[in-house]
């Protein structure tokens, strides 16, 4: 958005918020309804506005009422959401919803790229529609695919509702996983070998002079054995997961020592600041909303972090556990080392679910395997100007480019990370990222030199 446009949008929002639009509209409607249109229309409007406008004292009372009503509405919405989360659908309802969802996805001729659309054939739909994973979870195909049925633009369109979903609906999940992770040619039974964090010392500081890299981060996702994934977690289970993770953090040592905060206890302003500092998550993603990720919010959601904010654990953000290590520079050696230590500490008291073929299981099939995403926030002003070259390089180096808030690309800061999370060891993926970033920085430096010479 240009800055003029965004100012205009902000101004419009302000006018709406302040009630100006509403008051003016009412006056205009009144004028419209007036049988005998007055000659002096402005006077009419002015008179109407003065009559209908409250005085200052009345205004304060109304403002107060409005605030109270808003709080009440939020509470009611939460209650409604809670109750909705408890409704059990009958098999007939599931069948109906599945057929309707599938039809709308397939009928959409504009959004045709989701992996769900690509791999959910009519035969598979027929076969899977009324099958469920084991009780008491009883996840249907619909529970997994609802986000893709409703959001046709979603690149993947499916989440596993529990670990078993990967097996029960395997003929759908398997090609999606292979496709996303570039493993379509891989015929091995095991797509992800055992964890191998390799030699931590081989991972380095990629930008000791701090010219390009603003920050580095590596994250892992884990889900605790015996619990469904977010689409089917009950309210009680959200709390149980939180309790277990909180307890597991209590034995952290050294630079990993920190404190746990449940989101319900963090005021909105502090939450927003923490999100800005990249140590907290928000609700809001539409696909996740549809898939049931924010049911019972903020129950069971929280964050553990050390005072330096370099080691962070998110609880019940999509996966039960997201573990991340960060640094305000390019020192991946430091980041990687801390991450591995943190994971090992958690593994002492939590058992995470693993699959013999896919490795670590996550709700989103794009994360299975290592679940590892190593990223830098980086500024490469010259290379960024040549988007075609940048995209080609990223493709060649197996890198993914996101905006620095996950979406929007602000101030030319890019989030660059490994694209694949499966089929390679943890070490190999971090190394891929390391080599890729070095190559990008070299390309930027070449452009700098060419610029100076030219
Ligand atoms: P993920 O899927 O790995 O959790 P997201 O794109 O959803 O990543 O981003 C989650 C949060 O992590 C956001 O606040 C994002 O800005 C932050 N983040 C990601 N990479 C980095 C990085 N290299 N440095 C600092 N913050 C980061
Ligand atoms: Mg994410």
Automatic annotation (TrEMBL):
Pfam short name (any one): ATP-gua_PtransN
PROSITE patterns for this protein: PHOSPHAGEN_KINASE, PHOSPHAGEN_KINASE_C, PHOSPHAGEN_KINASE_N
One term under GO cellular component: extracellular space
Gene3D superfamilies: ATP:guanido phosphotransferase, N-terminal domain (1.10.135.10), Glutamine synthetase/guanido kinase, catalytic domain (3.30.590.10)
Residues annotated as domain Phosphagen kinase N-terminal: 96-182
GO MF terms held by the record: arginine kinase activity; ATP binding; creatine kinase activity
This protein's UniProt keywords: ATP-binding, Coiled coil, Kinase, Nucleotide-binding, Transferase
Keyword Kinase: yes
Binding site for ATP: 215-219, 278, 322, 373-377, 402-407
GO BP terms in the entry: phosphocreatine biosynthetic process
InterPro entries cross-referenced by the UniProt entry: ATP-guanido_PTrfase, ATP-guanido_PTrfase_AS, ATP-guanido_PTrfase_cat, ATP-guanido_PTrfase_N, ATP-guanido_PTrfase_N_sf, Gln_synth/guanido_kin_cat_dom
Any coiled-coil regions, as ranges: 59-93
Residues annotated as domain Phosphagen kinase C-terminal: 212-447
UniProt-listed Enzyme Commission number(s): 2.7.3.3
PANTHER family for the chain: ARGININE KINASE 1-RELATED (PTHR11547:SF38), ARGININE OR CREATINE KINASE (PTHR11547)
Family, per entry: Belongs to the ATP:guanido phosphotransferase family.
Protein's recorded name: arginine kinase
Organism: Drosophila kikkawai
Source organism phylogeny: Eukaryota, Metazoa, Ecdysozoa, Arthropoda, Hexapoda
